[in-house]
Each structure stands twice: as C-alpha cells, then as structure tokens.
Amino acid sequence: MRALVNRPICPLMTRPSRQCERGDEALSGMVLDLLEETLPGWYRVRTPYRYEGYASAEDLLLGEAHAARWAAQPKQVVLKGLCDVLSGPAVACFPLTTLTRGALVAPVGEPDEKGWQQVELPDGREGYTKRSFLGEYYEKPRFSREEDLRRAVTETALSYLGTHYRWGGKTPVGIDCSGLVSMSYLLNGVVIWRDAQIREGFPVHPIPRSCKKPGDLLFFPGHVAMYLGQERFIHSTARAGSDGVVLNSLDPSAPDYREDLDKGMTAVGSIF
C-alpha cells in the first residue's frame, strides 16, 4: 500500500516515536510505500529514493486511491524557499498552507495575467500561488550535457546558503549535509543516496581526488559536501560559527580553509 504526504514536512524518524533521532524528511506531495504499521498511528515507510524511516499517520493520506489519483496528475515543484498557497489570487487572502522548496503541487489551468497559478494540494484543496515560485518537476536528469547538469546542481546547492543546520532536514527551514547535496541533485532529476556515504545501487561512484569537478561530492567521516571548483565547497555544518550552509575552502592560504576536512577527506564521488 502507498500513502501521500499531506503536510509541508513529514519527519521520518529512526523509530516510531517523536522522541528519537530524525533520519529524513518527506515533503508535501511525495508518495511513500507503506511497509508495515509498527505501532498504532505509526508506519515504517520507504521513499521513492529508497530511504526508510517511520512516519506518523497524522502526516499522511493513507490508501492506494489517494496515491494513484495524485500520481496521475501533472506536477510542479516549489522552488521558492517558502511558498504560501492562498485561498484566492490576491496577497491579502488567507494561506491554506506554507510549502517548502521541493514540495509538489498539481497546477490547475494556466497562470492569470498577474502571475497567479491555481494549484491543487495533495488533499484535494485548491489554492493560489505565484507561478514564479514554481518550476518543472524533473523525474530524469534535467540536462543531458554534463557541464549544464554540473552547473545546475551547484546553483541549486548555493540557493540554500544561510539555511540553519537541522539534523535530518532537507528544506530551507533547516537542512543537514546529506540533505543539502541530495536535494540539489533531486531537484535536477537525479536520485542519489540520502546519507553521507557512497552506496551501491546509486549513481555516485568514487573518483580520484585530483579529478574532482564542480558538482562532485566530497566525503568525510559522517559528513558530505559539494565541490564548487577552485578548491571551494559548500556544505551544511553544525560547527560553531557556521551552524548551517556555508562556503569553505580546501586551500590552506584561504581565510575560510577547513584543515580538518582537507586532511580528513575519505573519498570523492561523482555521478559523471
């Protein structure tokens, strides 16, 4: 059986409880596989990118009918960091919900002359948001040319600059290291493993450190970053003084050099 995420953010916990570690977040409009009901009101679920965790039934629309209805509709993805869906096509209208980057909506018709797009939410409610807040939902790589895809994933990663660190997070409300790199690829139609490791069955594979290019991933014990070129990288870190998505350098002469990461790098990974 499948279920449809019906909240802006659905925490995926490491146990069927709110009082434990968050492993990931599923976003509004994502369809999950229900693997088992573990406790009343809690399900072990699997995401489309094969990550498993425990979700509360409060955050889900349960049943194949909901998932099938939603799967049959065209989708657009929220690209704005935070996006209100309003009850009408005017800024004074009441917000039905506030979605984050990565959430999915179903467009209804075409945008009006003022840029308002009517959309359907997973639970069937209809509202309005600005068309400029939405983008194409990619289920395969956005670009066929390597240079274009590398540029796209690095630009997406840079759009999270300043976001505070949240363990298990993957939105502009809060994001962790693997959430940052996995969302940067996912929004461009490429599914990589959610955690900070190279995992068999996913497209990231090891390459020599000397061959790294923008968009490749830098791995450290329990941490991952994205290489930007010229020895610079972007990552989400809880280190004091950073506390979120920042830029750092592998160049010892740079003021933002991270010696610990430079010398502690365990692997470089690439999808190319």
Automatic annotation (TrEMBL):
GO biological process, one term: proteolysis
Pfam families: NLPC_P60 (PF00877)
Domain NlpC/P60: 147-269
GO molecular function: cysteine-type peptidase activity
Alphabetic keyword roster: Hydrolase, Protease, Thiol protease
Recorded family membership: Belongs to the peptidase C40 family.
The protein's name in its UniProt record: C40 family peptidase
Originating organism: Candidatus Intestinimonas pullistercoris
